[in-house]
Each structure stands twice: as C-alpha cells, then as structure tokens.
Design brief:
This protein is α/β, with parallel strands linked by helices. Helix content is 43%, strand content 14%. It is built from 32 helices and 25 strands. Strands 3, 4, 5, 6, 7, 10, 13, 14, 17 and 18 form a 10-stranded mixed sheet that branches. The protein has a 3-stranded antiparallel sheet with strand order 19-20-21. Strands 1-2 form a two-stranded antiparallel ribbon. The chain starts with a helix and ends in an 11-residue tail after the last strand.
Length: 969
C-alpha cells in the first residue's frame, strides 16, 4: 500500500472511532425553509440552457479545454460556467462518466452532506434533512454562497474526501522532523492545496550540534523545501505551490531570514540585466531561491514596544532560551521594512494579538498560519472554508436582508461542520487535530461591491461601520449555531480543557461588538441583530460548550468568487471601475461595473446623469470630471488601482474594523504606490500592531522584477524576430518617407444636416459622405456669419474634413474630442445624447452614432437611446434574477443602427506594414484592460493555464479566464 492510500485508510479509520454522533436523547435540528418553496424543487425555479465551453490561450489561440453541451442556469455568466466546467466537473472529458450539468455537481456535494448529517444525528427527522438539502441547493444554485474548491473537487467522488483548503504543519529541531516536513508539504502541494509552517524551533546557525559542529539553521533548510515546492509545481500542477514560512523575531537567524528574498531579488535584477529570462515562469527564474513561499516574521508585543521606545531586544537560542545577541529593535524593524519595500517580503504576524484571541491555549500556542495568513490555529491542523456573497443580501432599497443572512449562516456552518465527520486528510496528525478541534472558516465576498452599491466609500467611517457590523453578525451567528450543535452532537473534543479560555474569547468578541457605534440605519439594524446573536450564543455556549474551536476567516475567495459572479473578492475593494467580460457565443467586451449605476441611483442621480457618468467611466476608467458627478461622491468609486486608488491606510483601517469579529485573520495585501518610502512601510506595519491586526503584508508597485509586465511582451517579440536589421531600417524608412494621398469627395455627394442645441447654444452639423458610404466632410455653423465663433468653426470644419480625406479614422477624432469640457455644456435636444460636456463632445458623439459601427461605438461607450434602454432592461432583469449584466446585455435584441462607415480613405500599404511591425496591445483580462486605461503595467503573474494576466484576490492572484489561483482555493 503506497503512502497516500495508507494515510487515507488510516484517517478513515480514525474518523469512524472519533467522530460518531453523540446525539443528545434523539434531539436534532429542526430546519425551516428560508429560500425555498415547499413542493417546488429549486431546479424547477430557474431556466436552464445548454452551452459550449471552449477555453483557449488567448495569446496563441491554442485550445486548453473543450466540453460542449454543458447545462447551466441562464442567469450564470460565461465566466462562472466556464470555471465550474473546467475546474469542478469530475470525470474524464469525452467519456459518459464526465459531469455535464450544474445539477450533477450540486447534487453530488449536497447529497453527501445530507447523508452524513443524517448518519451523524444532526437532524430531527428525514423531513428536516430534506429541507436542509433543498436550502443548500437553492443557495448554491443562486450563487448565495460557495464551499471552498476542495469540496467541489473531492466530495461525492471515489477520491479521498478532502474538504480543507488551509493547512498548518509543525517542524521540530530534528532531522527526522525536517524530512517529515518536506514529505508532508509535498503531499499537500500534490493535492493542489497549500501549507504554512513556523521554523523557529530549529536551532540557529549560531548554536552548536551535539557533535560539536555548528547547526545549519532554518534558512538552509528552507532551500530544500523551496526546491521541492518548485519541483512539484513544474511536475504538472497548473499553479505554483502555495506555502508560508514563518520565523519568530527573537530567533538568532532572524536577520538572515529577513534578507533572503530581498537578496534573491538583487540576483534577479543582475541576471535580467545580463539577458536572462527572469519573468515569472521564465526559463531562468528556477535558478533563484525562495520564490515559492511567502515569508512572515512573527513579532511580539515586547519587540514592538522596544521599537517604539528605541530599546534593545534579545535574540534567544532555541536549545536553552539563553540570550545569544542583543540587537537594536528599531534597526531590525527598519531592516524588515526595507526588505518588504524591496520585494514585498516579509509580512508581519503579531504573535501576542493572535494568541490573545486563541480559544485553545491549553492545547498549544498558535505559531503559524496557512499561506494566505487567514487561518491561524494549532499546529498540524486544517480548516475548510465557505464564503457568502454579500450582494445577494442587498435589497433594492439599499437595506440588508438581516434575517436571511442569519439563516444562511446557520445553514452554511451546519454543512461545514458535517463535512468534518466524513472528511479525509493528507496526514494522520492533521486528521486527528482537525477532528478534535473542528476548525471552520466561514467568510464572505463582495464587500467592496456592497459598499459601493449602497453609496458608501470603502475608506470611510460609515463603510467601516457596515463592514464591522456584517462581520460581527456573521461570526456571532456562526458561534451561536456552533453552540446549538454542541447541544445536539457534542462540543469539540478539546473543549473541556479549554472551556474558560474559549468563553473568554467569546466575551471579547461580544465586547468588541458593543464598541461598534453605527450612525446609519443599515449598520444599526445589523449591529442590533449581531448583539442578539452574541448574547444568545454565549448563553447557549455556557450551557453546552461549542462544536467548533474556530468559526470564521476572511479568505481570498479567488476561484469561488468568480463562480459566484462576484465583482470583488473577500474584504477587498473593487479592482477598477471597468471590467473585461466574456460573452455568450464567444468574444468579450469592456463594461463598467454593474455596481456603478446602482451606486449612482443610491446617491440620487437621475437616469440621464447616470448614463452620462457611466459613459465617462467607460471612456476614461475613472470618475474624475464625470459630467454632473459631485466631487464629494468621488470617494464612493475609489478602487484598489487606477486614477483614484484607495490610500494604503484605508486598507489597514478596514482590516482593523473587521478583525475583532474574525476567529482567524484576513487574507489581504495592502497595496502601496511605487513612490512609497521605507518609512511608509514602517508606518503601515507599526499601525497594524497598534490597531490590533493579527497579520499584515504590503506590496509596493513594481518592486518585483520577476513579475511579467505586459508592456514588455510586444517589444520582446519584435526584438526576437528573424528580420535582419537592414530590413527593419527599410520599414522605418518607409514610415518616415510615406506621404498620405488625399481622397477628395466627388462634386455630387450624399449629406445630412442635423440641428442641435447644447446648453442653450444652437447650431447645425452637416456631414457629407463618399458614394461608398464613408464620412469625408464636416461643416459646422454656429453664431452669425462673420463672427469670430463662426470663423473658428469654419476653420475647424476644414481641418477635420481634410484630415478625414487624408485617411485619419473617424474613431481617432471621436476618442480625442469626446468628453472635452468647456462652455456651452449641459442638456441637449438630441434624444441619443442627452448630456454633453461641450459642443465638441456633442458633435463627435453624434458623428460616431451616425457613422461608426456598433462594435466600435461599444468600445468607446457611445450608444443610442434605444441601445441604452435595452441595456437598462437587461440590467433590471439581472438585478431581479442575479444574472450577469454583460451576458444579458450582449444577448438583448438591440438593433444597432446601420453603420455609415465604409472604406474611408484607407491608409497606404506601407502604413499597414509599419503597423504589423508594432502590433496594437491586446487585452485578455480586467487587469490588462486597466493597464490599457491607466497606461501603466500592473505587477501580476500570468496564468500558467491560459496565459491571461491574473488579478489580485486577497494576498494571492486569480485568473478570470479559467479560475486558476496562485495558491489559494
């Protein structure tokens, strides 16, 4: 029997003997319907459709995956269906055993949970079990929540029933333990998950071995683990191995540990400058060490106080705890911040804060975390996650569905706890600890979208109040249900020895909830219910104990966030106001986030202004100078990146607002601008400690060389072509010497005249076309003949007309002159262009509507009234049914006006040749779209599966194209 099968069999045996039901005198949960209707199956409430899922590498067109005829609800977006089909459907593609419907996937998981729940005594009757299954099915079907990826991978399949995504290992100061670490970590990587470990028990390189020699130290053993992780990744995994390495700040090798990745970054720069391929995934990046792990320093209150007071700090030996060296605490803190400034590592974990909120200190201290830092608990343990989609609880009037949220948390926590009863684990030690302490990690996604949709800035007191209240309600309800489960099937095995500590932490959570002082009606209602949940839960827990030692974390929600069609992940704000969306039937388009119009309506803007502002955002990617938008409302639309990005301390303050209501921690990276200083990093790390965070990491733009920049790709492609230098010179010479030829209009040509009024100023626009239907001449008449304005308009008309006849594309003029702001401006008498920022803005919008094809206008964000009406209808339907706005808008029966653009004065062949030498930048994801808008490359890796540039998700990255992540499920 091989190791994997041996572990599975062994842990299954442990499950039977340690996790059998302890149902109290036949009691069980009575389940009430919340989302479902009695007598109607959830599947019968939605409209289903068949789709073809064909995933290609957008860079070279190669097909990565193909499955045709899959079945999904109409309301599910293309992205969500693609990700579920490629990631979660089980069975070999092309065989009858392959899953092909979302119904099969949900049934596979939900039926397993229901069966286990009945077997282990969770339900009062079979009827309650059926209602529970229907409620879970409805919530999954309508994207109200999602389990973490391992559940979808494994539950209900012949594979080991692994349900956990987060693992913590332990390493002692012995060679056997170190080798076990390599083996256990590799097994977890092989399954597509990640693990964290604290190496502080390993003696330092400044201490002696029993043989009299000097110890290697933990940093040297990190090399072997890093190489192992890289090998497993390159052996066929579709994402990099995810791991976290932690060292205590009082370890004698702490300075060497801090410098590891910064020193490697210097090596990357030197090799890059020497011509080696040092992009992430490049041929030569494997020569660099420590790149497969996130590094964190575990700092104590003693150390941070010494930093604050400019004091000394002792580094202690691992064998006897004696002081080996006393260092300047502030200098070490500076070294940590300098390294983070240079390469984003190490992050900080605040040890005393973490252990002050620990429910099980009698069992052992919390020494480590999972790779993304949200799971913090005992060594050799694991946590399964699930996340709620907060936008599903937002009412049309801006209120929050408090009661449905409470009931949904009950369902999800119950299901998550049931999963531990039947779950398998990668090692025996992890299985024993997890079954004894039953750690859960309920969380949420779409917080940033929720705040924007309700008109609240992410970085505001009101936004933090709502966020804190929701988080408190979620965790309070989760622990209350956990206490109720303890009364039915028993408290967790380790509860008796940790009862007083667990109760103390529950009181700390409740006290923090009392400190929320909401000012808005929504936050007040949520916080009031949270207070009830904490009070009831602690009373129930005092009587029965709790079923779970941990209840909540805030995970990145990368892949499952895309599965739920979330605009934002975890606790993050929106990445940007424009998104890259795939369409049914292939293709893609740029859209403004669907939360933006909702936010504008929440703020009281009329529909005409909403349309004008959305058009501005589509053109510019931000709200600055949007027509009619009040400057005091700009912060509502601030994002993680772009023209108006949220300040680093805004991210830290949001983390501090929700941290007291999370059992674990928060997966989030604080983004800092490239011009940030080391002092800025120090301030962020120090404030994180002061504000009571458990873990914190920063990322400064462009601090990593090994991150591929999309702007560099075309240049590299040009540089590596086989074209001789002389031929390149000829091409350049052709471009320089080329002179365009004017294509004059015939004496008799078709034309049209439009009268217009902009802000009360009236005028006439006459546009003449070539016989083959391409715009070639424009005349503008305003004011009296002979006036200065009339002369300027005549001269402008001649200039534009000559440019058109020499081959300047109309869309070039449209992109330059639309949104130009000057008086007169305001309302117009044109039903297709209700608001104009200036006369020029109106004229070129009108010309675009009359002479550009629909596809080109859509890219420019210019639509007729009929087209906008169709989009609004699609949006209303999307809000009502949870459908994806883009897919519905694309499929809406919009009749685009017949374009009047034909072969307008085509550029000469030499110009086409020059364009072939320098291809236009292509876009394959929201990150690349944002790069195109702001004109700046973003530090994000390319997806190993489909080649698309990924976008941030917590402290990791997720691919919008195929759902792959850089380490978090």
């Amino acid at each position: 029997m091989d190791d994997a099968r041996w572990v599975t069999a062994l842990t299954r045996g442990a499950r039977v003997t340690t996790s059998k039901s302890r149902n109290k005198a036949g009691a069980g949960l009575k389940i009430e319907r919340v989302w479902t209707t009695e007598g109607v199956h959830p599947y019968d409430e939605v409209t289903w459709e068949r789709r073809d899922v064909v995933m290609t590498n957008w860079r070279d067109g190669s097909i990565n995956f193909e499955q045709r005829g899959v079945e999904f609800p109409e309301a599910w977006s293309v992205n969500a269906a693609n990700i579920v089909t490629t990631k979660y459907f089980r069975g070999a593609v092309g065989t009858p055993q392959r899953e092909w419907s979302l119904k099969q996937l949900i049934d596979r998981v939900v039926e397993t949970y229901r069966t286990a729940g009945e077997e282990y005594g969770y339900f009062a009757s079979p009827a309650d079990a059926e209602v529970f299954a229907h409620e879970l099915t409805w919530m999954l079907l309508h994207q109200v929540f999602s389990f973490n990826s391992p559940v979808w991978f494994n539950v209900g399949t012949p594979s080991p029933q692994q349900v956990s995504a987060c693992f913590i290992l332990a390493v002692d100061d012995s060679m056997d333990s170190i080798l076990d670490w390599y083996k256990e970590e590799g097994r977890i990587f092989q399954g597509g998950s990640g693990a964290g470990v604290n190496l502080s028990r390993i003696r330092s390189s400044k201490e002696l071995l029993s043989s009299g020699g000097t110890a290697s130290g933990p940093v040297s053993f990190m090399r072997g683990a890093d190489a192992s992780a890289g090998t497993i990744k390159s052996g066929g995994a579709t994402r990099r191995a995810a791991k976290m390495v932690i060292l205590d700040v009082d370890h004698p090798d702490i300075e060497e540990f801090v410098a590891t990745k910064a020193r490697e970054e210097d090596k990357i720069r030197a090799l890059r400058d020497a011509g080696f391929d040092m992009d992430l995934g490049g041929a030569d990046i494997v020569s660099v060490q420590y790149q497969n792990a996130n590094n964190s320093v575990r700092v104590s209150d003693e150390f941070m106080t010494a930093v604050e007071n400019n004091g000394g700090f002792d580094l202690r030996g691992r064998l006897d705890g004696q002081t080996i060296e006393t260092i300047d605490a502030k200098k070490l803190f500076r070294t940590i911040s300098q390294a983070a400034w240079e390469c984003a590592d190490p992050g900080l974990q605040y040890d005393d804060t973490i252990n002050d909120w620990h429910t099980c200190p009698e069992t052992g201290r919390i020494t480590a975390s999972n790779p993304c830092s949200e799971y913090l608990h005992l060594d050799n343990s694991s946590c399964n996650l699930a996340s709620l989609n907060l936008m599903k609880f937002l009412r049309a009037d801006g209120g929050f569905e408090v009661e449905k949220f409470v009931k949904s948390v009950e369902f999800v926590i119950t299901a998550m706890d049931i999963s531990i009863c039947f779950a398998d684990f990668p090692t025996e030690k992890i299985g024993e600890t997890t079954r004894a302490y039953r750690q859960l990690g309920i969380g949420y996604a779409n917080l940033g979208a929720l705040l924007m949709a309700t008109g609240l800035p992410y970085d505001s007191a009101q936004g933090r109040e709502v966020s804190a209240a929701i988080t408190s309600l979620m965790t309070g309800t989760a622990y209350r249900r956990s206490a109720e489960l303890a009364g039915i099937v028993g408290a967790y095995d380790g509860y008796a020895r940790n009862a007083e500590a667990h109760k103390r932490v529950m009181r700390k959570h409740a006290a923090a909830n009392d400190e929320i002082k909401p000012t808005g009606t929504v936050a007040t209602a949520i916080q009031r219910e949270a207070t009830k949940q904490w009070t009831l839960g602690n009373k129930t827990g005092d009587r029965f104990g709790w079923r779970n030692s941990q209840a909540s974390v805030l995970a990145p929600t990368g892949t499952i966030g895309l599965m739920m069609d979330c605009d934002t992940t975890g606790v993050e704000p929106d990445l940007a106001l424009v998104k890259f969306k795939k369409l049914v039937g292939g293709g893609s388009m740029q859209i403004v986030n669907q939360t933006v119009p909702r936010a504008l309506r929440s703020l009281g803007y009329p529909e005409e202004q909403v349309e004008a502002i959305v058009e501005h955002i589509a053109d510019h990617g931000h709200v600055v100078d949007a027509p009619g938008l009040k400057p005091e409302h700009y912060p509502v639309f601030d994002c993680a990146m772009g023209e108006r990005s949220i300040a680093p301390m805004g991210h830290v303050r949001m983390m501090a607002a929700v941290q007291p209501f999370i059992s674990g921690a928060i997966s989030k990276t604080v983004n800092m601008p490239e011009q940030a200083t080391v002092e800025d990093v120090e301030k962020i790390y120090f404030e994180g400690w002061k504000l009571g965070l458990k873990a914190l990491a920063i990322y400064r733009d462009n601090c990593k060389v090994g991150q591929p920049l999309s702007a560099a790709k075309p240049n590299k492609a040009v540089a590596t072509t086989e074209t001789p230098a002389a031929e390149v010179e000829k091409v350049v010479e052709k471009v320089v010497e080329y002179r365009p030829v004017r294509k004059r209009l015939p004496k008799k040509r078709p034309s049209q005249t439009v009268s217009f009024s902009v802000g009360g100023a009236e005028g006439y626009l006459t546009a003449s076309s070539y016989p083959d239907d391409g715009l070639g001449e424009v005349f503008l008449k305003m004011s009296k003949q002979g006036s200065t304005l009339a002369g300027v308009m005549d001269a402008f008309s001649v200039a534009i007309s000559i440019g058109l006849q020499y081959g300047v594309p109309l869309e070039t003029y449209v992109s330059k002159f639309t949104n130009m702001r000057f008086e007169p401006a305001g309302m117009t008498d044109d039903p297709d262009v209700r608001m104009a920022a200036s006369v020029m803005d109106y004229i070129f919008r009108r010309l675009a509507l009359d002479f550009l094809p629909y596809e080109r206008r859509a890219e420019l964000g210019i639509f007729t009234a009929k087209e906008r009406a169709a989009q609004l209808r699609a949006e209303a339907e999307a809000e009502a049914s949870g459908a994806d706005l883009t897919a519905m808008a694309a499929s809406a029966p919009v009749e685009a006006p017949e374009p009047k653009t034909g072969p307008v004065a085509q550029p000469a062949q030499e110009l086409a040749d020059a364009a072939a030498v320098k291809p236009a930048p292509s876009v394959g994801s929201s990150t690349e779209l944002l790069e195109a808008v702001i004109g700046k490359a973003a530090d994000a890796p390319l997806c190993f599966t489909c080649g698309t540039k990924m976008r941030p998700a917590g402290s990791c990255y997720v691919c919008e194209g195929c759902g792959s992540t850089s380490g978090c499920s």
